[in-house]
Amino acid sequence: MRAFRGMTGMLSRGMQSLRRMIDTPTYNYAAKIGKAVYTVLELTRMLVILGTAAGLAFVADVVWRRETGRPIAPGEIFLEIVTSRPYLLFAAVIVVIRLRRIRYRLRDHETD
Question: Is the pTM of this model over 0.85?
Answer without folding.
Answer: no
